Amino acid sequence: MRPVLYKELKSEAVFRMEIKDFPVLIGIDSKGKSIFNRRHND
């Protein structure tokens, strides 16, 4: 893991992580909320 943006912010920086053989699906909107908890009106 290494910082790629805003390194001066230390733990709040943007980090790049390389992970092998770990399937994951991330769904976060621009407000930091999970998109998986939403209910849609059809």
TrEMBL record:
The keyword Lyase is annotated on this UniProt entry: yes
Highest taxon listed in the record's lineage: Bacteria
Domain Fe-S hydro-lyase tartrate dehydratase beta-type catalytic: from-to ranges: 3-38
UniProt keyword annotations, A-Z: Lyase
InterPro entries on file: Fe-S_hydro-lyase_TtdB-typ_cat, Fe-S_hydroAse_TtdB_cat_sf
GO molecular function, one term: hydro-lyase activity
Family per record: Belongs to the class-I fumarase family.
Protein name: Fe-S hydro-lyase tartrate dehydratase beta-type catalytic domain-containing protein
